[in-house]
Each structure stands twice: as structure tokens, then as C-alpha cells.
Amino acid sequence: MRYLAVLGRQPEISIAELELSGFCTDIDRLGGTQKLAVELKQKPLEYLQSLPEGKITLGVSDYSGRASRKTATMEALKLKKILVRHGRSVRVVENKEAVLSTATSLHNGLSGKNGRKVELIKVDDAWFRVIGVQNIDAYARRDQARPARDAKVGMLPPKLAQILINLCGILPEGSRILDPFCGTGVVLQEALLMGYCAYGTDINERMIEYSKRNLEWLMKSEIIQTEGIRSLARRGRAPAARGDRPLGRGRPSVDGPAGRGPKVDNFQISIGDATSFKWSQSIDAVACEGYLGKPFSKIPSEVELKEQKQECGNIILGFLKNLSTQIKKNMPVTIAIPAWLREDGEYERLDLLDQISDLGYNVNNKSREGLLYHREDQVVARDILILRKK
Ligand SMILES: C[S@@+](CC[C@H](N)C(=O)[O-])C[C@H]1O[C@@H](n2cnc3c(N)ncnc32)[C@H](O)[C@@H]1O
To answer: What is the pLDDT, as a whole number, of residue 262?
Structure first.
């Protein structure tokens, strides 16, 4: 079976993600993949003719080198004409470009879940049918509906949090994911939705409160039921937690909401400095967005850049040093670290790989190509490191 992953602006992230996650075909789990398709075994017309009776909704995206809106539309109309001649009723989804946008595919129900609503993808002479479309509405909901948000600590998009978790590789359900810079808890949220246990620590007490509020909200919201992919809560399973010590308030930091809803003690949140904290819970993987330094709306000066590199580098190395004595051999650690836009349009990265290696980690994807995640012109980009404890 030949699969096609339609990727966004950072295709390499998704390729690494697909590979390292054992080529998972669950689009709701693959944060970086916009569409997932499988190659057709027959000609597109034969495939369409084999669809169950009733009106067909057809979308065609043409990803071939010289494709245009016109070529895609022509392919769709050609197929429609023959189908109509054979007595089938067909609606063609209008192309605004050679390829249908994710929103168009999603909102026309072309996500491969409805037998007669299909999107076909053409790449030169090969044809694929879409089996999954990124649910951009669900991602927006998970991001924007959270009660405690803070623009200053950066807004980690939920799909990037999924990518960070996926880059840890295949983990058994219920594995405990640590985010030692948990902030408002996006990685923790996505870990829970993926069926893992979440363990968050952060140096800032306000962030700890935010993470707690957000996870309590998540567990009570319908999102955990509807978007909890292999959710522990949905399966009524909740691993026993061995609580950390309290947050200075005499109550355990094992803070799943009590009372209504599924019993959830599958997340723990504690205050702690990542450069010195002793994590008391067992850890199976670490996925985090580390400290990214000051937010910048314009390119930092040389002096500012030097300061930021120093400050962020110290925290990241301090954290990795502290962590390395507390985790087992081979444990995956993925961390997004900052990189800063320069006047020449390139990003200035932190050059830490040798020191990270000396601290006892193997660096996967040493060339780090494609693992820079940013919007166009974003000053602070996220540079993803994929590590494993030696
Ligand atoms: C970029 S934010 C992470 C945001 C997070 N991904 C979220 O979902 O909101 C970095 C976080 O690192 C925390 N931080 C900074 N230095 C730290 C340290 N030494 N130990 C632990 N946390 C630290 C900050 O308080 C902040 O919440």
C-alpha cells in the first residue's frame, strides 16, 4: 500500500513524525499532516463507479508539478461527465486552486469517512484517495476554548504539541509524558487526548495554576470524549498516581478533578525549576517547548540576541543536565528551543549539540533540517531537537 502525506510548509517535520511514529495513519494524531491519502488500486473512474449508490460528491486535487486550477477542474469534470453518462449523480467541489484547501476538503465532508464524498489526489500519473483530513476546527477549539491562556508565554499550537509527542516514537498507551516547562499545559492536554498520562512542572506558580485550570476544564469538556483519541478517561482507565508533594497548600499535586465526569488522576502538575527539580513520578518520555526567552515583535539587536542565546542556552543545558541523571537509557526527549530571525532572513540557532551530546544524549536528525517551525516572518521560531538518553 502506497500512502501519500500532504504536508504543510514544514514538510520535513511531518516526514520525521510519520517515520518516528511508526507511520501512523490516524490523521487526528498526526499534528503536521494536512491530508493523508492511499493509492488507488484501480483507475479513478473504476473506483468512483464502485461507490455505493446515491449522489457522489467529488473533489480533485492535483499536486503534479505543473498543475493548475484548470487542470484539476478538467480532471474532475471529465470524471463527472462519464459518471453522469452512466447514470450517477455527481456534485463536483469547486477548485479555487489546483488543490483543495484543507478547509474546503473538511467542510465538504471529503475526509474519507463518508462513502460517497471523496477527494481524489493526482500526482502526475498516480491517483490517491483521501483517507483523512486535518481537523482544523477541532485544533482551533482545543486552542481557543481553553480557559487560561497567556500570549506572553507563547501559544504552542496543539498540532505542534502533537508533533513533539509523536517525535518521541511509539509509546504504549498510558505512558507518562513529562513537560518540565508546561506553561499553560498544551503538551499535557495533547498527551491526555492521545491516551497518555501527563506530568507537568514549571517554575512559575501562575503557569501551574493555568495548567491545572486548563486540564480540569479539558477533562470536564466534551473534547475529551469527542477528540480523545484512545482516551484513558473514555476507557474508564486511570493509572494510580504516586503524588508529588504539595504546592505549598497541603494538598497533593495529583490534581485530576474530583466529582462528576470520569475519574481522572492521569495528570500531575507541580511547581519546579527544570534545572534542579527531582521528578518523583516515573517518566516514559519527555516532550516540551523549553524556555523561548523574551517575546520579540521585531528582529533583536546583536546585544539582545547574545543575551537571549546565553539565557536560553543556560536553562536548556541546565535542564538536560538535571534530567539526564533521572531518566533511563534510550528515553526519548523532544524539545523545542528558540531560534531568532536575523536581518538576512535566516534563523540564528542555538549551537548546543556538542554540549548536549556531552550531557549524555544522542541527537537524532543531527542536520536538523526541516525541524524549524515558524510562521512567515515570526521572530522567534521553534527549533525541534529529537534526543535520546545514551
Ligand atoms: C514557552 S513557555 C511554554 C509554554 C507551554 N508550552 C504552554 O503550553 O503554554 C516556557 C515555560 O518555561 C517556564 N520556565 C522558564 N524557566 C524555567 C525553569 N528553569 N524551569 C521550569 N520552567 C521554566 C516558563 O514559566 C514558561 O511557562
So the answer is: 37
The DSSP symbol for 270 reads E
Q: Closest Cα to residue 267, out of 230, 312, 213, 311?
A: 213
Q: Based on the fold, state whether residues 184 and 327 are members of the same structural domain.
A: yes
Is residue 175 scored above 60 in pLDDT? yes
Which residues, judged by CB distance below 6 Å to any ligand atom, belong to the binding site of ligand 1? 153-154, 156, 180-181, 183-187, 202-204, 207, 273-275, 289, 291-292, 315
Are both 167 and 270 inside the same structural domain?
Answer: yes
For residues 99 and 193, membership in a common domain is answered with no
What pTM value is reported for the model? 0.87
Report the number of distinct structural domains present in the chain: 2
pLDDT of residue 29: 87
What separation in Å is there between the alpha carbon of 350 and the centre of ligand 1? 17
In the prediction, which pLDDT does 133 show? Answer: 94
Tens of pLDDT, residues 3-12:
777 775 433 4
166 and 192 within one domain:
yes
Alpha helical stretches, state H, the chain:
11-20, 44-49, 69-85, 102-107, 136-144, 158-166, 186-193, 205-220, 223-226, 302-324, 353-358
Q: Domain limits at 240?
A: 137-389
Q: How far is the CA of 294 from the centre of ligand 1 (A)?
A: 12
CA of 177 to the centre of ligand 1 (A): 16
Mean pLDDT for the stretch of residues 220-235 = 64
**Residue 152 sits in the same domain as residue 127:** no
